[in-house]
Design brief:
single chain, about 100 residues, elongated, about 20% strand
């Protein structure tokens, strides 16, 4: 009987675990691709440097690094970065959760 219960749990929960693991792998791959990008473009196609000095939108601490990377002080990730033309370059990872 115990074997049947274990088998049922593996069959019922196993696919969900596999799908979740695959989604996490794809999210991490996308994160690496974005963090390797050094320049993004706004809607008007102006270049925006992604690596440099930034101020965290949450804790307002200054830091150097990738604009779409997490703040080293509080861990917050910017939703978007300003372009000199007053548009916002939206973080392509904004919809990815923890």
């Amino acid at each position: 009987m115990r074997v049947l219960v274990i088998l049922f749990v593996v069959v019922a929960i196993g696919p969900a675990i596999i799908v979740d693991a695959l989604a996490r792998v794809l999210d991490r791959r996308r994160l690496r691709q974005v963090l390797r990008t050094r320049v993004a473009r706004c809607d008007a196609q102006h270049p925006v440097e992604l690596v440099g000095a930034w101020t965290c939108p949450s804790c307002h601490a200054p830091f150097e690094g990738h604009g779409f990377g997490p703040c080293p002080h509080c861990g917050e990730v910017a939703y978007g970065l300003p372009c000199p033309c007053s548009r916002i370059v939206v973080n392509p990872l904004a919809e990815i959760g923890p």
